[in-house]
Every structure is written in structure tokens, then in C-alpha cells.
Amino acid sequence: MTHLIATDYAAMIAVVTPAVTIVIAISNFFFGFPPSWRGRHIQQGDPIFLWLALFGVVFGAILLGARMRFFNTLFAAGHRVRGRVTNV
Length: 88
Hints:
Elements: H1 2-7, H2 9-30, E1 36-37, E2 40-41, H3 46-76
Antiparallel strand pairs: 1-2
């Protein structure tokens, strides 16, 4: 699974996006770093990052599961071929 996350862009985004939004939500709620829009603080911005994090976790889990299932079915019926390494 870690190899899939490292090499597949969609799977990496599915893991990184929720992690980043959770860190932003934690910094917003606990450390008091509210988001700002052109220098003005957003008053109703507190639940935005929490909802983004929850949506990102759900969507990321669905996307990661779909990508893993796709690659497992794709490579399940693989065929061994003969060959040799010509250059490294």
C-alpha cells in the first residue's frame, strides 16, 4: 500500500489532503491561528476546515480503496515474460 501511495498521484492526494486539512483544523481550533482573506479574519471560518477534513477523509478512503482494487484486479492476471536488463 505504501508503494501505491508513493507512485500513484491520485492515491497520494487522497492521503495528503485529509492530513493537511486536519493539521489546519487543529491549528485553527487549539492554537488560535484563524484563516484570513486578504488581511481580514474570517468569523465563520472555524467549521470550514473541519468539514473539509471530514470530506477529505471520506473521499480519500473511497478513492484509495478504488485505486487499490483497480490495481489488484489489473495485476492479478499477470503473465511472466522472459527478458534481461540491458542497462541500469
